[in-house]
């Protein structure tokens, strides 16, 4: 609903009201703007003043929502020597000499401000909350800066004084207030209290802060595992030792305390003299010792302020001291070792077993165990590699080589002589059995990373790979199979032998020698002899062969039909009225076993067939066949050589008597 102004004029709702500024002169407009700006600045200044009044920065006062407590009163309030304890037992308070009345007991009071007075600061009252005289609020220095630490100390004694009761409590309150010079007539009424207060003031002068403590001292002898931490003595500002306070020492780094359980932290009590705590160094590096002394008397106090109720002096929290020291410690004795070795191979049925004897010596001096009169144990890794078909010169272990077995053999000197001359160790109690041919080599190494605890080597020691004294060879055992026969070549009969060699290393004839191992023997001899029956073993010894034959000492099958000069093994050229005998021999070398076939082996023998004796057939025998006689070429097949055999002789006789058998059967019919 619109309201119309009845003034006899045109209704306002239909009129245009001109801008007032259009009716104001420019000069008046400028004055109005200046007044507006000044008003804004004044308002900002007022806000700033109000804010500054709420926070007093020099003593930490805040008028924001302050602390609160419900108080219980203790002591003689009539003599104005009483103190207060909060209902939750967290705060102890005494009147800050404010002349206002006490707050109600057991009623929650929220205070309007809180100050922390510390580090030698004075306490100056807040005139908004503090009555310097009855009914007169004002600002004054209540406790001077020179008394700050003593006030804090005595306030810290209030809790124990409450527990003791009067006169201790009254004397403590009296001593605090006396430092302000604002004692009341009622407070001066008791001589015993004043006397005890004087003692408390002397005590405060001797034991008040600021507190100080030097650094701890870590003492460790070079190369020793044992050490000590010397604890500093905490002192008051007057230099009095503070003993009986909780003291904790914490070690950092490779160290622990020598007490049971080897702790890193130890709790004790401060003493008036330097105390030494034994420690053990467990390794090299920095070792730190931090000492903390807790529960020292307060070095600050608080003031809680209220416009209506007394401002209270609150005991500050207990103080503490902390100091740390760091040092470098290395209890280890480093030394270097080397090994001298001798391997051995003992033959067994079906193979051999390998052992190695090692002399471990220190290059300079064998290191002792830290803090002990015994020597460090060096762990030797004895590794066996193989089999390798050929030897090689000393050098580094091939990257692809994997040991067959590794023995961990400890070497520990038992006396000064062994520490100086060396310690002998061996794997004789656990030899390694081998059954495969080839070269085997030991490597006796000492690795830093694989040493037992408390053994400290300067560097790894790894000897050369394939050292002669560390290498043994289980020989290869070559074998031979033969197949001898006579073939006709242009009416000439040629004695042939098919020789199959096996068991040589695949690379035989390639190894030219290394160190004490000579190169491969290059030939296998397959000489042909003529020996009379009966043939005995070694009959060919000292005899000149009919033909000297050489084969390469390498696996393969070879057809022997010529001597080494290239002359065919013709039966006419190499005439023998007895028995042809092939003798196969091999001298052997560093990695292959020599062998020689026996003359008595029938498969290495060949005898020319004898013609059958002439026979006279009976009259009734039909005429012999006109067919030409069948030529039978004698052939010998053998796994190990060529020679005539008994079955062959029987066959020849049967063939010669064939006519008689046919004639006989005809007559029976």
TrEMBL record:
Ranges of biased composition (kind: Pro residues): 610-627
Compositionally biased tracts (Low complexity): 15-24, 628-637
Keyword Transport: no
Residue ranges, compositional bias (Basic residues): 25-34
Keyword Cell inner membrane appears in the UniProt entry: no
Ranges of Polar residues composition bias in the record: 1-14
Region (Disordered): 1-34, 591-643
InterPro entries per UniProt: LPXTG_anchor
Domain Gram-positive cocci surface proteins LPxTG: 637-669
TM spans (from-to): 37-56
Keyword field: Cell wall, Membrane, Peptidoglycan-anchor, Secreted, Signal, Transmembrane, Transmembrane helix
Secretion signal, residue range per the UniProt entry: none
Name listed for the protein in its UniProt record: Gram-positive cocci surface proteins LPxTG domain-containing protein
Taxonomic source organism: Varibaculum cambriense
């Amino acid at each position: 609903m619109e309201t119309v102004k009845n003034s006899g004029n045109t209704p306002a709702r239909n009129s245009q009201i001109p801008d007032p500024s259009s009716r104001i002169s420019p000069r008046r407009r400028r004055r109005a703007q200046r007044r507006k700006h000044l008003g804004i600045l004044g308002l900002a200044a007022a806000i700033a003043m109000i804010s500054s009044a709420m926070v007093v920065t020099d003593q930490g006062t805040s008028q924001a929502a302050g602390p609160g407590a419900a108080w219980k009163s203790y002591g003689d309030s009539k003599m104005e020597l009483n103190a207060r304890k909060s209902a939750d037992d967290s705060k102890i308070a005494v009147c800050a000499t404010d002349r206002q009345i006490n707050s109600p007991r057991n009623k929650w009071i929220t205070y309007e401000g809180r100050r922390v007075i510390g580090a030698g600061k004075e306490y100056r009252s807040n005139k908004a909350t503090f009555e310097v005289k009855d009914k007169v609020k004002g600002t004054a220095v209540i406790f001077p800066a020179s008394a700050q630490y003593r006030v804090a100390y005595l306030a810290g004694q209030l809790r124990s004084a409450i527990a003791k009761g009067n006169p201790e409590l009254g004397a403590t309150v009296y001593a605090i207030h006396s430092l302000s010079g604002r004692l009341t007539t009622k407070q001066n009424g008791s001589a015993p209290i004043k006397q005890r207060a004087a003692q408390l003031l002397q005590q405060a002068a001797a034991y008040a802060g600021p507190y100080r403590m030097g650094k701890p001292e870590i003492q460790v002898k070079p190369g020793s595992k044992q050490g000590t931490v010397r604890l500093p003595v905490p002192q008051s500002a007057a230099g009095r030792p503070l003993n009986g306070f909780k003291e904790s020492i914490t070690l950092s780094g490779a160290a622990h305390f020598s007490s049971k359980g080897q702790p890193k932290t130890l709790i004790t009590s401060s003493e008036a003299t330097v105390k030494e705590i034994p420690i053990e160094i467990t390794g090299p590096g920095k070792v730190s010792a931090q000492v903390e002394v807790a529960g020292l008397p307060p070095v600050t106090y608080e003031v809680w302020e209220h416009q209506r109720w007394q401002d209270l002096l609150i005991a500050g929290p207990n103080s503490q001291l902390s100091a740390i020291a760091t040092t470098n410690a290395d209890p280890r004795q480093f030394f270097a070792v080397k090994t001298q070795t001798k391997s051995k191979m003992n033959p067994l049925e079906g193979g051999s077993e390998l052992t190695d004897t090692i002399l471990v010596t220190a290059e300079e001096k064998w290191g002792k165990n830290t803090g002990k009169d015994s020597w460090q144990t060096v762990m030797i890794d004895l590794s066996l590699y193989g089999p390798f078909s050929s030897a090689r010169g000393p050098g580094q272990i091939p990257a692809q080589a994997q040991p067959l077995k590794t023995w961990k053999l400890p070497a520990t000197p038992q006396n000064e002589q062994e520490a100086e001359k060396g310690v002998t160790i061996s794997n004789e109690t656990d030899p390694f059995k081998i059954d495969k041919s080839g070269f085997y080599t030991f490597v006796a190494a000492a690795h830093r990373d694989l040493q037992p605890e408390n053994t400290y080597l300067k560097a790894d020691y790894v000897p050369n790979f394939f050292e002669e004294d560390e290498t043994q060879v289980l020989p290869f055992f070559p074998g031979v199979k033969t197949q001898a026969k006579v073939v006709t070549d242009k009416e000439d009969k040629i004695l042939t032998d098919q020789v199959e060699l096996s068991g040589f290393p695949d690379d035989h004839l390639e190894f030219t020698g290394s160190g004490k191992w000579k190169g491969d023997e290059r030939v296998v001899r397959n000489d042909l002899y003529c020996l009379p029956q009966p043939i005995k073993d070694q009959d060919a010894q000292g005899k000149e062969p009919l033909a000297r034959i050489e084969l390469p000492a390498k696996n393969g099958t070879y057809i022997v039909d010529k001597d080494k000069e290239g002359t065919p093994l013709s039966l006419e050229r190499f005439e023998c009225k007895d028995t042809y005998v092939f003798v196969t021999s091999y001298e052997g070398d560093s990695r292959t076993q020599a062998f020689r076939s026996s003359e008595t082996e029938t498969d290495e023998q060949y005898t020319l067939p004898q013609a059958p004796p002439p026979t006279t057939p009976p009259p009734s025998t039909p005429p012999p066949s006109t067919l030409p006689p069948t030529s039978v070429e004698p052939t010998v097949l053998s796994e190990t050589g060529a020679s005539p055999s008994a079955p062959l002789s029987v066959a020849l006789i049967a063939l010669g008597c064939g006519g008689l058998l046919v004639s006989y059967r005809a007559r029976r019919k």
